[in-house]
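Morning!

As promised:
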Amino acid sequence: MYLIKNGRIHVGDGTVLDGCDILTEGRVIRDIAPGICCQEAEVIDASGCEIFPGFIDPHSSVGAMGMPSRYLDNQEKTDPLTPQLNVKYAIDPDEIDAQEFYKSGITAVGLTPGNANVMGGQIAVCKTAHMKMADRLVKEKAALKCSVTSEVKSVYGGRNQMPKTRMGAFWIFQEALRKAKAPEEQEKGKLICEIFEKGSMPAFVAAQTAGEIQGVLEMMKTEHTSLVLVDGYEFDRALEEIKRQNAGLILGNVSDCSQVTKHGMDLGKICDLNENGNLVAFTASNGGFSEGREVFLWTAIEVYRAGADAEEVVKMMTLNPAKMLGVSDRIGTLETGKDADLSIYTGHPVKTYAARVRTSMINGEVVF
Amino acid sequence: MAQTLIQNGTIYTMEDGDTVFTGEILVEDGKIKKIGTRIPEEELSGDVEVIDAAGLNVMPGLIEAHSHIGLFDFNGESSVDDANEMTNPVTLSIDARYSVNPQAREFKAAYSHGITTMLLTPGSGNVFCGLPFALKTYGNNVFDMSIKAPCAVKIALGGNPKGTYGERNQLPMTRMGVAQVLWDTFRKAKDYMEAKESGDHPAYDADMEAMIPALKREIPCKIHCTQHDMLTAIEVANAYGVRFSLEHAWGASNYIDEIVESGCDVCYGPIGTYRAAGERRKVDIEAVKTLDERGVNVALITDSPILSEESLYHHIGEAVREGVPYLRALRMVTINPAHVLGVEDRVGTLREGKDADLILVKGRPGLDTDASVCKTMIDGKVIWQSVS
């Protein structure tokens, strides 16, 4: 049990609490209230500090690529349609541990198949501190990873297999959706039907250019799954369509070769999406490959510098990704009953670079 | 004579021992003519343009000591690698100026974020990669923008040259092979130089000629290395008495004593990389704090356009996050890299007689995350200003 006193609490939903304490018990937060007393609890004094829910990168390749070898474990490049694959079996926890994610405030990641397949497999949510797999795995089958980016074309087109073009990739996607509705379909088709017809899990679709984004939106108009665009570098050129369909956006790493990806990007338009109610989140990945833990925060900072409100940005780092992954019942906000995953920062990391993680807690354990 | 007077700004001169103060800067003929709390009337000519910097910080233009803008050219339909002449492990006399696309949009990204001087260098595909140069970031012609060429000899250790030549079953396929190329080339260059000095006339060799300024300590070697490769770099460079900097230097915290004793500079970065096994496993920007405290000249680098130009702010910020005092961190993108480039007599601080390369900033870049540049001045001319 820990009693965290005197900190400023950022709930994660945009609100900030002053004068409240946090009491944890076991894995979860037992209470958040002013002046909590609890003899058994170890007191952590967070005077002058800011407490945030653990940040969540909902789309990470780190640890999903498996052990270094010729074939990455999250890229089953043998068939453009592999929705049935579960990324859980690719996870190398040592690789996640080596990143020290919690030093950048990140306590959970959505581990994902790569961008090579039109439907690549199912995303799992995993905590970033070293502990038993059963304790750190928040959810498997959290979302279906799809991709219409040029990587699909280069993988299969390079073998003279379909898809060699963008229209080919969309054709495969649409045919899979159409066939899945046929009564005689086998396991894979039934799964696709469950996802897209009945909305059993959201679809995370990697799409970078305006053309790719608009194609995905058009194709998904009649489907019932919730749609989250990944990377989305030209989101600002398809803004009205994204707003109309209320699609989510996991904005890719904008510090990597960014004058290409960011060329002309109006990052300030993120505020439009946010005000419209579209869920926005960030990832340290670009094209299906993650970079270091720092760039997650850097993207958040760029969005803040482009004009977004700091607490809205915090929401994009916490509650929004939790909602996208369907795990907001457990993580993403600091509330009674939720997992005690939090960072005690010396300042507000969205506002000042001087902010540093003093203490990191995952599943109620102090991990840093 | 046209003058510009910058008033009411909070001035960060970045000179030794200087504190931050509210004052005025008088610019004339592209140079800083006078700087102080108040410029006396008699210094002013009739033709003075006044810039009110109230509420703004006035700092030297930022300097990036390791960039490939326009050499890795991402500006067309497909990206072009003009940075790596990977046809021989030793191509040390090739001149980076001839590879740069002067229209690269990254130059604007640089100066609009306050970066006014950069070192542009060949990539790391060879052991001896070529000749970097220093330039101002605004202009149409790279040769006119250039302020020192060459300003170093670029050398690379580790996975890059190994990957290039190992694939072809040529030396160097290993780190042993890389070290061999280093020793051989330095020895040949020294022999060549000594032969010339003793009055012999060795057959002209462009690579050996290009090495002479480095052997004479007129320009440094910039040595790409990470982790334990830095021990190789230090051993060879010290054996030949050259000035040098360790570039990238991931893992430096394991070799602090060796670095301090060698007397080298460190150009640290970029960070923000995935910690993969091997050269990337230890990315330790906290090392710059210790290095700085122990007297090593440290610059922060982004490797742009591999990372964005503006990610220089993030690099200052991550150093600050690791406990480097803000003004020390700011030195790592101003006067410290000016020394690495050998242009500290012209840029890197705000001092009378130096180039009028300065920025007016709302907030403090690398500390306040929403800091933004309002005006960028290079050689006394405002070459960029924000719309608002």
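Chain A has two domains: 2-51+335-366, 55-324.

Hope this helps with the figure draft.
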